[in-house]
Amino acid sequence: xxxxxxxxxxxxxxxxxxxxxxxxxxxxxxxxxxxxxxxxxxxxxxxxxxxxxxxxxxxxxxxxxxxxxxxxxxxxxxxxxxxxxxxxxxxxxxxxxxxxxxxxxxxxxxxxxxxxxxxxxxxxxxxxxxxxxxxxxxxxxxxxxxxxxxxxxxxxxxxxxxxxxxxxxxxxxxxxxxxxxxxxxxxxxxxxxxxxxxxxxxxxxxxxxxxxxxxxxxxxxxxxxxxxxxxxxxxxxxxxxxxxxxxxxxxxxxxxxxxxx
Length: 261
Prior knowledge:
The chain is α+β, with helices and mostly antiparallel strands. Helix content is 20%, strand content 26%.
């Protein structure tokens, strides 16, 4: 790959988003890599949609129908694609997909939500996040890593419109924020925050109270990468004006490292 344009998007259901401009957006942007989360569709049903030609497509769906799911479209065929694994074996919820390219690994992830009553907070912070961190570090020992997706956490106070009233709400608890910092550690960086230090940039808005129109949102969708890849990043852009989901796409433009000989 030469210079790469990659996009991540939680589409909140392929069927729904396809009726609101997903395919038109895909054809217009023509990314080299297109990562989807919360696809909520089986590979067989997804294949019935008229996706743009010239891409290798990989779908990972969970055992529960109409729930979670991730996907990758790539112009270049990866060396290898792995589905999962989950913390205790197979990724039965369809949350993790890893593709190996000549100079880097690409990981698309849909991190479990802790739920409104925080019933899944312990699983998310004590099981899933440590498992995900180990997975990333195993890859990073071999070659640089880019990971993207809906991480279901706002990292800092500037990453949501109302931090003080959300401290004990899913996505902004101290436990989730600390777990995400542990995922990043010293090895990985939050690419958008390396470039843009100002508040007011969000990727998810509630459907209630015209939150998107008022830009009362959260930044919970990310491009993160091995620290040594930062010089390769040309831009990271939150495409907040793109409709179709309660999340918006996030794009990154980078020059992938040459593979080791």
